[in-house]
Amino acid sequence: MYRTPLEIMYVVEGDFVQSDNGMKTSQNIENKQQLINKAERHGLDIEVANKLGVADYKKDSLQTFSDTLTIIDDGLFDIDYTIIKDCNTVLHSPHDVDVAIRDKDLLDAISSLQDAGYVVEKDNKTEIRFSHPELNNVDIYTRLDYFGERVIEIDYILNSTKRVESFGTEYTALEDPVEYALNLSHLFLDHGRATLLDIVHMIRLKKEDTYQPKLAQQVAYEHNWIDEFNLMENDINYIINSVHNGERLRFPYVFPIQSRHSVIQSIKSEKLEYIDLFSILLTTLKARLENTVVESVVIKNPYLKQRASKLVEIVKQNRGDRSVK
Fold this sequence. Notes:
Beta Polymerase, domain 2; five-stranded mixed beta sheet; 13 strands; globular
């Protein structure tokens, strides 16, 4: 974990941070590469490099992302789809691209991606993951469930989209209020933590002219988790306000386990099962170990990495994607 690098936030979102606390402006930062390296830990290196005027930084990665978006949009042109959870307000190149479609269109989507050279890497109740030797991974979702509960209906998602442009490529994305509500639930219920990239994205969504708090709340209200929405937003607002006030937090920010337990218990229609409790503990532990020596040891050891990945996969399948009753 890393404490909030205020100098990064000042470069990325200088008009939002209340005080620069003596930080240098982007025009006179002496060691740009050092700052970019620090920003890379938070997924913000491309954004920072762009703000600092560093030309062609990770140009190939951005081109790969653009090519992936083109393949998706061209291949799914006759299917209702949307890119989700993409933090599209921040310049970055994700490891994978998440796509939501209706179940009835799944076979067509699979065929389209396979025609483009993708192969199925993983197929479970959570998602279908496709990999490609030269493009970003693509994850296909036909439902958005966490802990066995339907958070947002796919039809609702696909009726709340807009066309956007990124790197010269047009594609379908979510309207800002729906994007905010989905991201909020995903960070809190699935990851159990928020990266600095996530927070910058949420800050920017809130600043968009098209974002209206009541519309984001309406998403949760129509899916019967408005009380839980408010509880989760309290935590997000705490992080955002801390960044705004120039305070230093540890990132990724791990949501308090008590808060997650309360929200998840409230959102479920029945008592939490042991697998649910274990999932909360595991995702919290995983988030706390992110970017630590322990994580490095696990990653470098093939056996430990395989066992850890298997454990996470088992819990993930049982956590978010049991059949909705």
